[in-house]
Structures are given as structure tokens and as C-alpha cells.
Amino acid sequence: MGTNELRKREIWQDRSGFLATQAEHSFHNVFIEAFKGTNFTVRANPQEFNKIYVDFPLSEKVKSEIYTPESPVKKHGITPDYAIDHMESKKTLYVEVKRQDGWVEGKPRSAGRGNAHERSCKYFTPGLLKILRRESGIESQYLPFWTVFIGDISRDPCRVREITCWFDDFSDHFFFWRDMSNPDLIINHFDHRLKHLLY
After folding, report:
1. CATH domain 3-45+80-198 topology
2. H helices of the chain, where?
């Protein structure tokens, strides 16, 4: 389904609902609508990784040196914000939506001191990347995740450079959604840069 068809849908007539203060809901609402009548779905808070650390193997030596609680840990893992699934291929792209303040007009440089963007870097770690790739079914030359940055961070000259550097040749896997009143921007990014990974 192309963006021209989506423009006809009633939801786009009322763009006031796409507010930065409700960023994650806006992402979800946009893609629920965009995927109607397609083989794609979007899930909020996918649970497939919420126990990945529970039984992660440690050597007996390490286990003898750390605290062992009386009641075993039953839930310890990660929960991405969203998962985009292709129903036929069974492939999945995991999504993080990061809202953060930033250094923009009228604000001091210290306004960009948040670290939400740094926390999103856990997806680049070798062990977690291996787990995500295995679950996603996406070919290993690509990343199994997409990070969407919203709010002032998307215009902060320091943070934009950091993020662009971190992703390097994987620029398709991040997006600065600077104008959240325009859902076509994020849909177009997905359609032209990421959708093919899920076939």
C-alpha cells in the first residue's frame, strides 16, 4: 500500500493526534493505519526477549562470586517499543522510539545532556545483536532493529552527529522524525529503506 492511498484515509485528515508528547502512541497509530489490508502488523512491547538474561549461562566460578537471591529471578530481559512483523515471511523488525530533549534555538547547550540515545546502543552489543538477528529472521548484513528519534534531539547538532556516526553504513536503520505532524515522512522511510528486509 503506497502513501498516495494512505493520504486518502480519514486518519490523515486529523493530524493533531500526532503529538510529540505521545510519541510512541503516534508511531503505533501511524503504522496500525498504514498496515491495514497488508501482510504487515505492528505490535507494541513485544515480549519475546523479556527473559533472555534469566538463564544466561555463567561459569560456576562467576556464580560463586555473585549474589544469589533466595527466590530465583523469573523475568529479566529487554522489551523493544515495537515489532513490525511480516505475516507470510515471519520476519520481524524491532523498533525503539527515543524521545529526548536537545540543544536547539533558545536553549542552552546543556539541554542536550540526556542519554536516551546512548541507552539505545545496547542493540549494537554483540550478544544482543546475535539474539535479535536469530529471532528476527533478517539477513545478517542488515540490522534487525530500527531506532526512531523524536523531539529536540532530532535537531540537536551534537546528538545528530553522534547518532549518524554510530550507525555509520546502517543509516537506513535510524530516522529523525522531526515533523511528527507528517506521518508520510516515517512511512516513506519504512517503505523505501526497510520494508524489503521483511520479505
Report:
1. ECO RI Endonuclease; Chain A (3.40.580)
2. 3-7, 23-34, 60-65, 116-119, 126-136, 157-167, 183-189
How many residues comprise the chain? 199
Q: What is the pLDDT of residue 6?
A: 45
Query: What are the grid coordinates assigned to 35, written together?
Result: 498496515
Of the candidates 157, 146, 155, which has an alpha carbon nearest to the alpha carbon of residue 186?
A: 146
Rg for the chain, CA atoms, rounded: 19
CA distance linking residue 152 with residue 159, whole number of Å: 10
- Rounded Cα gap, residues 41 and 85, in angstroms: 5
Distance CA 55, CA 73 (A): 9
Quick one: pLDDT band at residue 9, thresholds 50, 70, 90? very low
Per-domain boundaries in the chain: 3-45+80-198
The mean pLDDT value for 115-123 works out to 94
Average pLDDT over residues 65-93: 97
Identify each DSSP E strand in the chain by its residue range. 40-44, 82-86, 92-99, 145-150, 174-176
The CA distances from residue 51 to 9, 18, 73, 79, 144, in Å, are 39, 33, 9, 9, 19
Q: Report helix, strand or coil for 53.
A: coil
Cα–Cα distance for residue pair 113/102, rounded to 1 Å: 7
